Amino acid sequence: MLDRFFTAPQVLERLRRGALSTALDEVASRLHDRGYASTVAQSYLSIAGHFSHWLALERIAPVGLSTETVVQFREEHLPLCQCTVPRGMRVHVRAALGHLLAALTTRGWVAPPPAPKECPADEVLRAFNIHLEDTCGAAPATRRLYTRYARGLLETCFGDGDVDLRALGPKEIIGFISQQARERAPETAKAVRTALRSFLRFAQLQGLCDATLAAAVPRVARWRRAQLPRALSDQQLAALLGSFDRSTVIGRRDYAMTLCLAQMGLRAGEVAALSLDDIDWRAGTLRLARAKERRASVLPLPAQVGRALVSYLRNGRPPTRGRQVFVRRRAPLGEPITSSSVSAVVRRAFTRARIEVPIRGAHVLRHTAATRMVRAGASLKEVADILRHRSLDTVMIYTKLDLPTLAEVAQPWPEVRS
Asked: How many angstroms separate the CA atoms of 372 and 262, rounded?
């Protein structure tokens, strides 16, 4: 497989002479199957060959390698390297060694990493995570966030010692939340409070503390609906959608993703998770099986969004075994995209369209979709259903952006006569 990327006999001989010569063919096969460009693959293989050469120089057995060996090569050898073998591009070192380790792990040549040291807080947080998944139906991202904030409380109060929540009182809880409110943005501090209340309620159910501890969590000052939701004007949205070059396969994909955000109010994670099985073309609906609240939702599929999806699926989506709608067009080819990739697509579109807005993420398009629905005469119940909000109170803020209706009910400003 190496000869797919290298033709010079002396290069091939040098690569096959190293301690990991048989594994390099597997790395080359991985790179080829995932659609890596020849120049990038050559750089990756040169780095892997350099690592193989270094193992031979240091007389390190190729079987039983550990991540510490890779770190030693990367941080101790490379800065002072005097080797004459091709070394590849420095920017590719981490990725190249990652591919090599994956191939070596498949062969069983990499020693398993040592088990992380357990502390008393780990057992409590593990049970809390199970409670969030099984009882609350929380999404994985929510579980990670809640357990991280709960760990912050336990580490602050107990360090690495035993966890005894009965030893805590309102003073410690209030002090922790006050510190978070000083150090974090209001939205983040509010999330810490929510996570902490959830954790202490769980602890109460498990008999680890009484109800007074959860009741002691103070509120974080933040006035409800004090700010307007950020949304794009019709002209800005048209400019944003017009910035995509739909004559290219990437342009068709990115345009379809952005339409899902702007017209259907989907979240970036929901767009990334869309499956071909979620689309009912005959009924004209889209099923969100991985919604934030872990309940299946069925939404109408707008005609413009449907046409964009068809254009991408027929003339843009590469062959892949996966069922995800949106996949990568660059190496690793055909792999599902992530929510961060969706947000990055939107940010680049803002830059191309030269639209100056305070926030350039994908979520501003969700606000835009809700605002346009309210201005078009949709009821708050309809908006809440489309956005999959459980409470009408959540969408009340969008009524503040229905400026024409607000102008009709606005009272005249009283004149002051001197």
From this structure: 9
Tokens read off for 306: 């449907």
Residue 205 contacts by C-beta under 8 Å, 6 or more apart in sequence? 131
Give yes or no: 50 in active site.
no
Q: Which of 385, 384, 409 is nearest to 397 (CA)?
A: 384
d(CA 371, CA 348): 23
Catalytic annotation present for 389: yes
- pLDDT tens digits, residue range 330-387? 888 888 999 999 999 999 999 999 998 877 888 889 888 888 888 887 777 777 777 7
Choosing from 363, 375, 388, 400, the catalytic residue is 363
Residue type, 39: T
Cα separation of 154 and 156, whole Å? 5
- Examine residue 113 and say whether the peptide bond preceding it is cis (omega within 30 degrees of 0): no
146 an active-site residue?
A: no
- Tell which residue, 336, 292, 289, 295, has the closest CA to residue 145: 292
pTM for this one?
Answer: 0.72
Do 327 and 334 meet the contact criterion of CB atoms below 8 Å apart?
A: yes
**What is the tens place of the pLDDT at every residue in 150-203?**
999 999 999 888 899 999 999 999 999 999 988 887 888 889 999 999 999 999
Rounded to an integer, what distance in angstroms lies between the CA atom of residue 156 and that of residue 101? 37
In the three-class reduction of DSSP (H, G, I as helix; E, B as strand; rest coil), residue 108 is classed as coil
How many CB atoms lie under 10 A from the CB of residue 327? 19
Q: How far apart are CA 283 and CA 299, in angstroms?
A: 10
Marked catalytic residue, from 16, 230, 348, 389: 389
267 counts as catalytic: yes
Domains of the chain: 2-107 (no CATH), 120-215 (1.10.150.130), 234-406 (1.10.443.10)
**CA pair distance 271, 256, nearest whole angstrom:** 10
* Residue in 131, 197, 267, 328 annotated catalytic: 267
* Catalytic residue status for 292: yes
Choosing from 4, 16, 292, 329, which is the catalytic residue? 292
Our answer to whether residue 77 is catalytic in this structure is: no
